[in-house]
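The instructor's notes for this session suggest beginning with a concrete chain rather than abstract definitions. Hand out the sequence below and ask the class to guess, before any prediction is shown, which regions might be ordered.
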Amino acid sequence: MSKHIIDLSLPIRNASFDTQEQHIEYIDHYAMARQRATAYGVDPGDLPLPGVHSASERITLSSHAGTHMDAPIHYGPTSEGKPARTIDQIPLEWCHGDGVVLDFSWMEAGQVIGVDDLQRALARIEYTLKPFDIVLIRTDRWMDFDRHDWAMRHPGMGREATLWLIEQGIRMMGTDGWGWDIPIPMMAEALRKGDADAFFPGHYAGRDKEYCHIEKLARLNELPAHGFTFSAFPVLIERASAGWCRAVAIIDSHSE
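After discussion, reveal the predicted structure:
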């Protein structure tokens, strides 16, 4: 038996249309030679390869840029009546498990996924959720990564749908859309019109029931509906509301 690994992550990069801050300064071998030689008190010309040292990068980055995992503290100061956990407090057991893909690629931007939608999607793939499955919401909007309006093109999860998944024993969820909820300007417009319940309902559900979600996944369209392992461990950032992760699907292949 061999294993096929599919990368489900989007890159951190310059010139991204992600609205979260990300900037990479590349420091090449020659600049590093000059910098480090001065720090080490040596002449760059005396290095084993004269004038050449190791490359490096300096990165300015929001914890919510790129493919990342949101911790309960992102949703509010408390969850289930207790101080909400930060990303460095998330049980790693939540981050690795059986993956399930629910296909909502047919939905339009701004549509809210409800409980009935989840149940119909599960019926279509003839699957019953079990505790600690990792549920992945497929929108195919990762394909818009290079569009200037990428953050405006996805459907999102509603409060009731998010809570329903948690009630099935799900603690880790994810989406290949820009965000878990519908686009922020659409929610803000609803709030201005007096509909407070329409503002981040999927996120704020985590104030009542503890869970994590991953945003900005990719290539969920390349996965089977179930029968694979999902793995995504967040970078260990002390007291942070989120952490970048390299998400992958692991599929067992039976060779002849």
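Then share the key points. The longest strand covers residues 96-103. Residues 69 and 214 are 4 Å apart (CA to CA).
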